[in-house]
Amino acid sequence: DIPNELFLVLGLVSLVENLLVVAAILKNRNLHSPTYYFICCLAVSDMLVSVSNLAETLFMLLMEHGVLVIHASIVRHMDNFIDMLICSSIVSSLSFLGVIAVDRYITIFYALRYHSIMTLQRAVVTMASVWLASTVSSTIFITYYNNTTILLCLIGFFLFMLVLMLVLYIHMFALARHHLHSISSQQKQPTVYRSSSLKGAVTLTILLGVFFICWGPFFFHLTLIVTCPTNPFCTCFFSYFNL
């Protein structure tokens, strides 16, 4: 049993963190580029999770203590709206993580053509498309949440983003490693090459590791709902959803 107050604190911390990211990008003119706009959208997506979490937890605390009395039908509608916000933020957050990976890939492999490929207009279209797709898909998901096909689509989307990021970042790491090897062989400094390669590998592991650790349990939960909803092991796992 995890107290609602803990969710409230986590939501507030997350909200402040993401607000700082958005404020830094909007205030600093040097950060007014497609790359940082994508990062800003990612922060806004994560902010939606925080706002949804704060609203839901606050209402639950007020209702538990008898401060707020709301009709059951209104509570149900509010719950659906908050769930839609959370679902929309999940889809948009995953999408922008994928968009950022693609953007970094273009920066490295098509450096000279980057500004002609990733124009401001294309960046705006990409961001608008992600937000629109997230809103539509979250509405469908909440409306048909009992449908197995919908859950499979969401799980498939997560796996697609995971594989996409793995492929792109590993390819980028391989290119950086090749460049380092060429430089170190010319300068005859193999120690620098090994040290830089190790740092790159650690960074890549942290990036993808944190992504999987943060999102993995939730999508594993959805996978178990589809594959073994009545199995004792699965039922046990379901009871730890709040954790």
TrEMBL record:
Q: Give Gene Ontology CC terms.
A: plasma membrane
Subcellular location(s) of the protein = Cell membrane
Q: What is the predominant subcellular site recorded for this chain? A: membrane
What topology in the membrane does the UniProt record assign? Multi-pass membrane protein
Q: What is this protein called?
A: Melanocyte-stimulating hormone receptor
Give the source species. Answer: Falco rusticolus
In the record, the note on similarity to other proteins reads: Belongs to the G-protein coupled receptor 1 family.
Q: Which GO terms describe its molecular function?
A: melanocyte-stimulating hormone receptor activity
What the entry lists under PANTHER family is as follows: G-PROTEIN COUPLED RECEPTOR (PTHR22750)
Family matches, as SMART domains: 7TM_GPCR_Srsx (SM01381)
Keyword annotations from UniProtKB, A to Z: Cell membrane, G-protein coupled receptor, Glycoprotein, Membrane, Receptor, Transducer, Transmembrane, Transmembrane helix
Q: Which Pfam families match?
A: 7tm_1
Q: Provide the G-protein coupled receptors family 1 profile domain boundaries.
A: 17-243
Q: Which domain of life is it from?
A: Eukaryota
- TM annotation in the entry: 6-26, 38-61, 81-102, 123-143, 149-176, 197-220
| Function text | Receptor for MSH (alpha, beta and gamma) and ACTH. The activity of this receptor is mediated by G proteins which activate adenylate cyclase.
Q: InterPro entries this protein is in?
A: GPCR_Rhodpsn (IPR000276), GPCR_Rhodpsn_7TM (IPR017452), Melcrt_ACTH_rcpt (IPR001671), MSH_rcpt (IPR000761)
